Amino acid sequence: MKVWGITGVIGSGKSTAIEHLRSKNFPVIDADQVSRIVVDRKTELGQIGFAQIYKTFGATVLNKLGELDRTAMRKRMMVNPHERDTLEAILHPLIHKHIQGVMGGWKADGVQLGFVEGARLVESKFHDVLGGIVVVTASFENRVKRLVKRDSMGKDEVQLMMGLQDENLMKRFARVEWKNDGSVKQLHKLVDAFVEAKMKEA
What we know:
Number of strands: 5
Oligomer: single chain
Helix content: 55-70%
Strand content: 5-15%
Largest sheet: 5 strands, parallel
């Protein structure tokens, strides 16, 4: 079994690529969704993550229901980037544990090719356990347009978000690049060609 990571900065189109892979029935793990699971107090792993975050950051990162306020956390990380390292030191081991458990299930089910999507795969050292990394790239202008349209974000907020991500680092570790400055159909063709090649290798 080979599992590839799909990464890219915000607005690059990695989610579009992943949705296409899902439509082709390839198993996919969304690392961002996993980051929610590992702080969800309804799960055993989530209880551990939530407790560690609460102990570290206090009630200021909770909403009125006493749950983790992801929007408040995101804004806090923008203002205090050094705290992101502290947060990731808590989350990444838990995310790794969950993803590796899912991958173990894939292997038992005879999966040949799977994917893990995440913007921080390299920073979290998760690339070490993957078959390789694909980075999805796009021009700055296209990324801004997509985010303003998709998330109704202002340009200033978009630039702050982009400033938290290191595309050059992603490119250094990536073995494949999908350039996504064209149409969705063109991106799909890149994905399909990659999948066809990897399935032949399996």
